[in-house]
Design brief:
Blueprint lengths: L3 H14 L9 H17 L2 E8 L2 E13 L4 E4 L6 E3 L3 E6 L1
Antiparallel strand pairs: 1-2, 1-5, 2-3, 3-4
């Protein structure tokens, strides 16, 4: 028989096994992301952004709603106005 505390510990362990590690991008990758981001913003294009959030890799497709250069994040034009920090962006594909 297992105690509730043991069950919780086992569940926490299995949940942590699904966590992905955020990759470290080199300077060339960061520069490429910056160039694509600039093009998308200036031409108001739809974009697919792969980013790291909630210990997983997430993908969102939409137009960029706003960019905050001071706090270094952008908001997407989806229903939830998804906020993505610049340092969490892994890849950008222009649609």
């Amino acid at each position: 028989m297992m105690m509730p505390e043991h069950i919780q510990m086992i569940n926490d362990y299995w949940d942590s096994m699904d966590n992905k590690i955020k990759p470290i991008l080199d300077e060339q990758q960061l520069e490429e992301i910056g160039i694509k981001l600039h093009e998308v913003i200036s031409k108001n294009l739809e974009v697919e952004i792969k980013y790291y959030g909630d210990h997983d890799y997430l993908i969102i497709k939409d137009k960029i709603y706003s960019v905050n250069y001071n706090d270094k994040f952008l908001k997407m034009n989806d229903f939830e106005r998804t906020k993505i920090d610049f340092h969490d962006i892994l890849d950008i594909q222009i649609e």
